[in-house]
């Protein structure tokens, strides 16, 4: 599904070039739940952003379902975002002025999906995530865990094949963090490919594979023993 070939990312200042990623090679198959770990500044968010086409590699190739994603033009990236990937962040990034229902509905409006179908898709997620009663509330009226639930609903309502999560539990207390991780695991079991970045070792176990990144290099890459992909 995802193939990164010799990806470099660097920033040039006057007399020096700073490498954030140094020739990263990575393949992710459909159905995997990959956790990228590593110290702050290792380049974790940068990899995720390159995969989600929020950032561009300085060199190297990126194939998404065998298509050269590194060649996608700026204008077509919007289309890529709308149809192929969902993104969630540490800070949720919900729209404060919209209520729960409207936040989840937003990507469907951008995709031009008609009212009746929108209603059905949003209602289905409110139901599945057990937040029907919260549909009229605004983000400021929700706990962090509930906000992340809504952000996940918004990220997947359009049916992407890939969910990218940057420190999804970074702002949550452990109980809420676990609730979110269990939900991600469930989504993965239902077929969603997930790549997450986390600092927290205990949340890495929910996935099927761990990648350790250090100084822009993959130092370790292994499957978790009890993951279904190994059975
Ligand atoms: P991000 O860099 O993912 O957007 P922030 O800007 O909120 O996240 O994080 C600020 C700094 O804190 C960054 O250097 C980030 O790597 C670090 N950081 C984020 N989450 C954690 C965490 N759970 N534990 C330790 N450091 C963290
Ligand atoms: P992580 O997610 O592992 O904490 P990031 O991918 O967020 O790491 O960042 C990796 C490195 O890239 C950091 O050291 C950061 O300072 C550097 N970096 C990010 N953006 C820029 C920029 N515009 N110019 C220079 N360095 C940058």
UniProtKB/TrEMBL annotation:
InterPro entries: AAA+_ATPase, ABC_transporter-like_ATP-bd, ABC_transporter-like_CS, MacB-like_ATP-bd, P-loop_NTPase. SMART domains: AAA. CDD domains: ABC_MJ0796_LolCDE_FtsE (cd03255). PROSITE patterns: ABC_TRANSPORTER_1, ABC_TRANSPORTER_2. Keywords: ATP-binding, Lipoprotein, Nucleotide-binding, Translocase, Transport. Gene3D superfamilies: P-loop containing nucleotide triphosphate hydrolases. The keyword Disulfide bond does not apply. One of its GO terms (molecular function) is transmembrane transporter activity. Pfam families: ABC_tran. Residues 2-229 form the ABC transporter domain. The keyword Lipid biosynthesis does not apply. It comes from the Bacteria. GO terms for cellular component: membrane protein complex. Belongs to the ABC transporter superfamily. Macrolide exporter (TC 3.A.1.122) family. This is ABC-type lipoprotein export system, ATPase component.
């Amino acid at each position: 599904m995802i193939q990164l070939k010799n990806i470099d990312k660097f920033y040039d200042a006057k007399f020096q070039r700073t490498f954030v990623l140094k020739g990263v090679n990575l393949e992710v198959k459909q159905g995997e739940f990959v956790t990228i770990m590593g110290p702050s500044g290792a380049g974790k968010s940068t990899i995720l952003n390159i995969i989600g086409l929020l950032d561009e590699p300085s060199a190297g190739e990126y194939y998404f379902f065998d298509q050269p994603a590194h060649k996608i033009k700026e204008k077509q990236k919007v289309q890529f975002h709308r149809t192929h990937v969902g993104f969630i962040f540490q800070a949720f990034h919900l729209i404060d002025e919209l209520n729960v229902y409207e936040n989840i509905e937003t990507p469907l409006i951008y995709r031009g999906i008609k009212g009746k179908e929108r209603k059905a898709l949003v209602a289905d997620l409110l139901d599945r995530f057990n937040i029907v009663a919260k549909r009229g509330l605004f983000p400021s009226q929700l706990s962090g865990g509930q906000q992340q639930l809504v952000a996940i609903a918004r990220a997947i309502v359009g049916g992407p094949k890939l969910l990218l999560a940057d420190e999804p539990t970074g702002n949550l207390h452990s109980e809420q963090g676990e609730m979110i991780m269990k939900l991600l695991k469930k989504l993965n079991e239902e077929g969603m490919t997930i790549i997450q970045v986390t600092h927290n070792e205990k949340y890495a176990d929910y996935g099927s594979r761990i990648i350790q990144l250090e100084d822009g290099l993959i130092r370790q890459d292994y499957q978790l023993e009890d993951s279904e992909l190994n059975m």
